[in-house]
Every structure is written in structure tokens, then in C-alpha cells.
Write a structure and sequence with these properties.
membrane, 1 helix, rod-shaped, Ion transport domain-containing protein, transmembrane, ion transport, TRPC_channel
């Protein structure tokens, strides 16, 4: 019965330590997700342009000179 106060204070400090750890880890998770999102948004225009070019080239390699609706125009092929 001598160490009841010490055990209670120790348990409270341990709980506070765990709560602070959880808050800090959640803050780090939000920061990492925010950084990943900003990187994806920053590269989205470049990726969109590459995808558009890939689609255009697929139409050109298949023998059609222009993709629809431009393929109704007369072409040299």
C-alpha cells in the first residue's frame, strides 16, 4: 500500500505518453498523405498529356490518320 500514489501517477504518465504518441503518429500520417496528394496533383497534367499522346499514336499506328471525329476529313492515306 506504500506505492499506490506512485503507481497511479506512473499509469497516468504512461497513458499520456501513449496518447501523445498516437497524436504525433496521426499527424505524421496526415502530412505524408498530403505530400503524396500534392505530388500526384503536380504530375497529373504531365501524365494526362502522355496518355493523350499514347491514344493519338494508337490511332496513327492502326492505319487511321486521325482519331474520330476528325477521321471524316479526307487524308493522304
Amino acid at each position: 500500500h506504500k506505492h499506490v500514489l506512485t503507481q497511479v501517477i506512473g499509469s497516468i504518465l504512461f497513458a499520456i505518453f501513449h496518447l501523445l504518441g498516437i497524436v504525433i503518429l496521426m499527424n505524421m500520417l496526415v502530412a505524408i498523405m498530403s505530400d503524396s496528394y500534392s505530388n500526384i496533383v503536380g504530375q497529373s497534367l504531365i501524365k494526362w498529356k502522355f496518355a493523350r499522346t499514347r491514344i493519338w499514336l494508337s490511332y496513327l499506328y492502326e492505319g487511321s490518320t486521325l482519331p474520330p471525329p476528325y477521321n471524316i476529313l479526307p487524308s493522304s492515306k
